[in-house]
């Protein structure tokens, strides 16, 4: 049976229009993976000599164990944002003579062979070999390596629990950020010193391998929790079927003043508010707004004015990145309707544009209190907003014409978390870093004001030529109309 | 009226539709029958410019559909559930379509009141989103929405499938009355030979993408179709 499952996955992956259309993106992902593998390998090889060199009086293994808490915490955070949940289309299997437990073990087992579980090995194995060479004894080294593998798997399954739970609520990555920062704070202020506890635990395992049974037991528990959690989802009337909500209606009369785009604007606002996936992009706004607090109060970043640009673009553009990159996939479920109705592409796209512009302006206004950290920040945020409105919105709309991945808003199938994963963040890179570069050149050679002015001018040009640019984008959409229709018909 | 000339569609070298010429005059109710894979939905998709023809073209009231979008204001359609917007209530969906077709809320309310029988108290004011309605009720919404704004051309793919018997009978009457009272051109497809012969003035049989029969409906048509398909 497992053989069939693997075959299905293989076919699903290579036969999806997404794969065929985005080979470039896949190559990029492969390069990133390679990069991380090499980085970890270098880390694994060099870590022991570095620790030995820096702390000649202490045992490198003990020092490393002391840092493992941060390692695991970082691992958990990274997974949450980058690792995709194990996905499988189980509904057709439910009526076939396949044991439910078999399906679940397969799905969970599949997550265990994820890239993110192999990545730490690139550091762990070389470090373990160093331990052997440094006469820690083969046994100790092996026990340490096995312990690391077990902990990696624990994090893997823990992440699935956290990620699937948060996917069910609207808070997106709010819970994980709270959990991680909570743990970090408890540890940092030494209320509960997790790092020492963990270090002591692992040291104990190294000293007496019998204790390895404890992490093994934890692994079994998280696996079992996942198992029971997913088991509940395996019924057609349970989580496979979305709960029926009572509809709330409002006529949103205020959108009228936007003229011809009003019906689309209403539709988009309903789309945002009534569906789980897009709704989470509203909650992400809160995170985006708080993002500056990571940087501005910290004296390390004081005077790094190019950083303001990054934060400014992020704060005023987080909605553009999060919502914009799935245009027009948000409407993929009824794209054929839009294409055969009395609708002009221009109005449809203008509505999305207006929505993004509004978000940018609102976020700028809300970020005005950052002026507390300096008037320059306010100025840069304003420039970033103008740049977002005049440049980034168009880029993301244009990128949308290459969008071929359907988003199922109803999420009827369990295990359905489309459009999440590393790619989502990759798309944001050029939007975030190009303006930093654009700011940096005049800033370096002329001065701060020149950098700010340059961004504002670029944005203003975009705003002035709005009609022309939109016409260009509309033709791009028209050209890929048939391709989009047929791609959106596929269930990945 | 709708005119297809030298219209063909190939997928990877396989011809799924090949129509030398087909003309549907204004006001006709036109039925398309054929087994699975005969090309019915492909033809409708070409009429609605949802797929690109390999050769030839479709002209709708002198407008070639894949060149200009000006056919959209007077053409309405319901092909499948992907024409519905799941997160709207039925009313909101009707208002949205109405707005696109230049009708305000009051117009739509008046328009909807004539369909109380078909809605059977299961659709309006139920505080339910379209995605939570049953397949049959979704279909009703889609079909009724396609009638909004007095379109001159109405395209319905398999309108009778998934509907309960009572609604099937009501829908047949509705469609018959419609072509008489508004002079709209109606294009429907169906697997139920009885339904199409009752509703349509003219029936075209497709087989593997080719037109094999083109009949003006008469008392013998049903018999003829049944004989044809029972091989």
Explained architecture:
The complex is a heterodimer of chains A (492) and B (231). Chain A is mainly α. Chain A has two domains: 2-234, no CATH class; 258-489, no CATH class. Chain A has helices at residues 2-15, 17-21, 23-54, 60-82, 91-94, 100-112, 115-133, 138-168, 174-188, 194-207, 213-231, 262-274, 276-290, 292-295, 305-324, 335-340, 345-366, 375-400, 422-445, 448-464, 466-479, 481-489. In chain A, helix 6 (100-112) crosses helix 11 (213-231). The longest helix of chain A has 32 residues, at 23-54. With 231 residues, chain B is an alpha/beta fold. Chain B is built from eight helices and ten strands. In chain B, a hairpin with a 2-residue loop joins strand 9 (202-207) and strand 10. Chain B is globular. The A-B interface holds A 242, 244-249, 262-263, 266-267, 270-271, 274-275, 333-337, 339-344, 409-410, 482, 485-486, 489 and B 48-52, 69, 72-73, 75, 77, 79-80, 82-89, 91-92, 96-97, 99-101, 127-129, 131-132.
β-strand number of chain A:
0
Helix content of chain B: 25-40%
Beta-strand residue percentage of chain B: 25-35%
Q: In sequence order, what are the helices and strands of chain B, one letter per element?
A: EEEHEEEHHHHEHEHEEH
Largest interface: A-B, 32 and 32 residues
Number of domains of chain A: 2
Low-confidence stretches of chain B: none
Total individual domains of chain B: 1
Characterize the overall form of chain A. Answer: globular
Query: Largest sheet of chain B, order of strands side by side?
Result: 6-7-8-3-9-10
Tally of contiguous helical segments of chain A:
22
In the CATH hierarchy, the third-tier topology of chain B is known as Rossmann fold
Cα Rg of chain B: 18 Å
Rough shape of chain B?
globular
The termini of chain B sit apart by 34 Å
Number of β-strand runs of chain B: 10
């Amino acid at each position: 049976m497992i053989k069939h499952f693997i075959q299905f996955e293989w076919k699903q992956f290579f036969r999806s229009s997404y794969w065929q259309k985005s080979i470039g993106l896949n190559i990029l992902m492969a390069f990133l993976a390679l990069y991380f593998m090499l980085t970890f390998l270098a880390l694994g090889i060099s870590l022991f000599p570095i620790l030995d060199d820096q702390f000649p009086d202490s045992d490198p293994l003990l020092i490393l164990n002391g840092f493992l808490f941060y390692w695991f915490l970082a691992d958990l955070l990274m997974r949450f944002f980058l690792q995709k949940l194990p996905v499988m289309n189980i509904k057709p299997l439910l009526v076939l003579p396949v044991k439910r437990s078999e399906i679940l073990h397969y799905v969970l087992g599949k997550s265990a062979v994820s890239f993110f579980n192999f990545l730490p090995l690139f550091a762990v194995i070389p470090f373990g070999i160093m331990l052997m060479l440094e006469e820690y004894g083969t046994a100790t080294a092996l026990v340490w390596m096995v312990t690391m593998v077990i902990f990696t798997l624990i994090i893997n399954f823990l992440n699935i629990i956290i990620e699937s739970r948060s996917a069910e609520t609207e808070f997106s990555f709010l819970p994980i950020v709270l959990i991680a920062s909570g743990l970090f704070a408890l540890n940092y202020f030494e209320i509960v010193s997790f790092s020492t506890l963990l270090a002591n635990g692992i040291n104990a395992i190294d000293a007496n391998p019998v204790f390895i049974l404890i992490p093994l037991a934890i692994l079994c528990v998280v696996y079992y929790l996942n198992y029971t959690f997913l088991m509940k989802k395996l019924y057609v009337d349970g989580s496979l079927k979305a709960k029926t909500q009572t509809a709330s209606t409002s006529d949103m009369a205020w959108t009228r003043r936007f003229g011809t785009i009003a019906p689309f604007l209403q539709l988009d606002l309903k789309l945002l508010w009534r569906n789980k996936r897009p709704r989470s992009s509203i909650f992400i706004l809160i995170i985006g707004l708080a993002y500056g607090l990571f940087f501005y109060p910290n004296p390390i970043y004081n005077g790094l004015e190019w950083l303001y640009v990054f934060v400014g673009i992020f704060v005023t553009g987080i909605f553009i990145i999060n919502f914009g990159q799935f245009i027009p996939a948000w409407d993929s479920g009824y794209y054929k309707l839009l294409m055969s109705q009395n609708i002009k592409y221009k109005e449809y796209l203008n509505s999305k544009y207006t929505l993004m512009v509004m978000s940018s302006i609102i976020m700028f206004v809300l970020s005005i209190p950052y002026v507390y950290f300096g008037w320059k920040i306010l100025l840069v945020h304003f420039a970033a907003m103008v740049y977002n409105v005049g440049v980034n919105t168009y880029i993301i709309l244009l990128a949308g014409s290459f969008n071929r991945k359907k988003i199922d808003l109803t999420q009827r199938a369990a295990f359905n978390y489309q459009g999440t994963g590393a790619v989502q963040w990759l798309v944001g890179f050029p939007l975030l870093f190009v303006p930093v570069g654009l700011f940096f050149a005049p800033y370096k050679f002329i001065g701060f004001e020149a950098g700010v002015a340059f961004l504002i001018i670029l944005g203003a040009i975009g705003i002035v030529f709005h009609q022309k640019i939109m016409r260009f984008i509309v033709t791009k959409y028209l050209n890929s109309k048939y391709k989009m229709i047929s791609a959106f018909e596929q269930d990945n | 009226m709708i005119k297809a000339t030298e219209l063909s569609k190939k997928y990877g070298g396989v011809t799924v539709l090949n129509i030398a010429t087909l003309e549907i005059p204004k006001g006709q109710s036109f039925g398309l029958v054929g087994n699975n894979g005969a090309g019915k939905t492909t033809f409708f998709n070409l009429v609605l410019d949802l797929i690109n023809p390999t050769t030839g073209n479709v002209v709708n009231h002198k407008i070639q559909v894949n060149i200009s979008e000006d056919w959209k204001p007077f053409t309405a359609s319901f092909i499948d559930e992907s024409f519905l917007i799941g997160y709207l209530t039925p009313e909101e969906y009707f208002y949205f379509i109405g707005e696109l077709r230049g009708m305000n809320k009051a117009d739509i309310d008046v328009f909807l009141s004539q369909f109380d029988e078909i809605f059977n108290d299961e659709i309006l004011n139920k505080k339910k989103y379209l995605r939570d309605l049953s397949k049959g009720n979704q279909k009703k919404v889609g079909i009724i929405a396609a009638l909004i704004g007095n379109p001159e051309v109405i395209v319905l793919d398999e309108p009778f499938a998934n509907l309960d018997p009572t609604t099937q009978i009501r829908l047949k009457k509705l469609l018959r009355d419609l072509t008489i009272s508004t002079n709209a051109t109606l294009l429907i497809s169906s697997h139920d030979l009885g339904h199409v012969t009752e509703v349509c003035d003219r029936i075209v049989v497709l087989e593997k993408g080719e037109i094999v029969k083109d009949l003006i409906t008469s008392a013998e048509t049903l018999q003829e179709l049944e004989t044809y398909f029972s091989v």
